C-alpha cells in the first residue's frame, strides 16, 4: 500500500474567498429543501467522502451504476447517489439551471448545476441495487414510499458544511482524518464500520483485525441514518466512548461518519470500502452479513451471509483498500476469553457462550442480567438508560378499521383500563378528536388522509419517546401510511396495530352516525368501504372481532396482548 492515503482527497467546496459571494448569489435561486438522507449524501459529496463523484448522478452515470456498478466512464461506484425531488418541482426546472440546496432550517449548503432531469425506473433500481423489489427492504421501501418521482443530476458547488451540534470533536472529514493519520504516523489503518453498540466480542475482533493487518484501528461508526429501529446514535456514541479505554492507548481512534446507510449488503460493503479509502484507511473489516437488511417479505434473508465478502474481494484491488474478514468470536468459559469460533479445536470439551442481538434486546427489554463476559458494565449502563425495561417504556396502540367499526369505543375502554392501572400517562388520539383539533382543514382525499395519519403518528411517536402511552383510533385506510407510522413509533418503543375487523356490512347496518346512508346516496364522497379503498392489515399484532364480542372483552384482549408483550405487568 502506498502512502497515497496520506495525501488530501479533492473536495467540492467553493474556494474560501468566493463562498460569501456565492451564498449571496444563491439566495436568489430556486431552492430545494434537502431531506435528512440527502443532507447526509451532500455532506459526503462535498467533503470528498464520495470521491470521485462530482455531484448527484446524471442519467448515464445512474444507469451505469444501477446496471453494473460503474459510472459512465467505467469507474467503480456501487450506489446510486441521486437527488430525488417531487414531480411539480422538477416540472418547473430547466436543464442548465442552477438551484440552491438548503438544509432543514433553510441554510444554503450548496448549489447544483442541473444537467439531468429524469424519471428513474424504480422497480429496476430495487432489483439491481438491492436485490429485490420488496418493500421489506428499508431502502426499497424508501425508494417507493419516500423518494420523489424525479431525479436531478449535476455538479455540486459546496458553500458550507452541514452543521452538527452533537459530538463535534468526534466528527472528521476525510481530509481531517488523513491529516490526523499523517500527524500520528499511521501508514496502515484498518477501519471498523458499525451501527450497533460495541461489546467485548467486537472489541476482541477489531483488536485482532488490527494486529493481523499490522495496522492501527479506526472505529468508524455511522451516525447518519441506519436501519429503522436501531439504537440512536447518541446512546451508541456514549457506549463507544466507554469502550475506547479498553484498547491499548494511541493504537486506536474513533471518528463518526455521517453516512445514510442503505442496508444494501454486498454493494454496500464495496461502497463502505470506497468511503473508507477516501478517509485515508488502507484496510476495512467486512463481517458476516455486512449491512444486511434483515428478512424479506417471505421471511428469507435478502443476501447470502458471505456475499458481501465475496463482492468486496472481487473488487478490492481496483478499490485500493484491502478487506480483513471478520471472525465470528465466541466466549470460551473455561479459558475466560474470546476466540474465533472456527478455530476452537477442543469444542467438545469446553463451554462456548454467545448472546445474539435478539437475545440482548430481550434481556434489555425484560430488565434481565447481561453478564460481564458479554459486555462492559459501562456500556450496559448506557444502554439501560436509553432503553429501560419494556414495562417502563412508552408504546402506541394503533386501532384501524371502518367508520363505525367500534374503534373509538374500544379505545376509550382501553384508555380507562390503563389509567386505572396507573404508572404511565395515557393519551387518546381518536379519529374525530384529531380531525377537530389537529387536522380541521383536511378532507378525505388520499393525500389528506395520509397527512392526517402522519400527524397522528408524529404525536404518537413523541408520546412513546417520552415514556407515555398513545392510543390512536383513526380509520387509517392505507397500509403504506400505517407502516410509516409504525417506523416512526418503533424508533422509540412498541407499536401495536389492532385491526377492529367489523365487516363493512355490519358497520353499514349499525350506521351510528347516519353517514353510510349519506354515502350510499352519494352525498358524502370518498367514503371508506363504500366509495374509497381500505387495505386490510396483513399482519396486525391483534385483530378483534366485534360482532359477537362486547366492548369490555375487546379492550381486555388488548390488555392481554400488552401483558404478553411485557409492556404492562399482569
Ligand atoms: S382517516 O382516513 O384515517 O384520515 O379518517 P379519520 O381521520 O379516522 O376520520 C374518519 C371519521 O370521519 C368521518 N368521515 C368519513 N370517514 C370516511 N370517509 C369519509 N369520506 C368520511 N367523511 C367523514 C367518519 O365519521 C369517521 O369517524 P369514525 O370514528 O371512524 O366513525
TrEMBL record:
InterPro entries linked: APS (IPR002891), APS_kinase_dom (IPR059117), ATP-Sase_PUA-like_dom (IPR025980), P-loop_NTPase (IPR027417), PUA-like_sf (IPR015947), Rossmann-like_a/b/a_fold (IPR014729), Sulf_AdTrans/APS_kinase (IPR050512), Sulfurylase_cat_dom (IPR024951)
Transmembrane segments: none
Domain Sulphate adenylyltransferase catalytic, chain residue ranges per copy: 171-385
Gene3D superfamilies, alphabetized: HUPs, P-loop containing nucleotide triphosphate hydrolases, Sulfate adenylyltransferase
The reaction(s) this protein catalyses: sulfate + ATP + H(+) = adenosine 5'-phosphosulfate + diphosphate; adenosine 5'-phosphosulfate + ATP = 3'-phosphoadenylyl sulfate + ADP + H(+)
Biological or metabolic pathway of the protein: Sulfur metabolism; hydrogen sulfide biosynthesis; sulfite from sulfate: step 2/3
Keywords: ATP-binding, Kinase, Nucleotide-binding, Nucleotidyltransferase, Phosphoprotein, Transferase
Domain ATP-sulfurylase PUA-like: 11-160
EC number of this enzyme: 2.7.1.25
UniProt domain APS kinase: residue ranges: 393-544
GO biological process terms held by the UniProt record: hydrogen sulfide biosynthetic process; sulfate assimilation via adenylyl sulfate reduction; sulfate assimilation, phosphoadenylyl sulfate reduction by phosphoadenylyl-sulfate reductase (thioredoxin)
Binding site for ATP: 401-408
Enzyme class label: transferase
Primary role: Catalyzes the synthesis of activated sulfate.
Family stated for the protein in its record: Belongs to the APS kinase family.
Official protein name in the record: Adenylyl-sulfate kinase
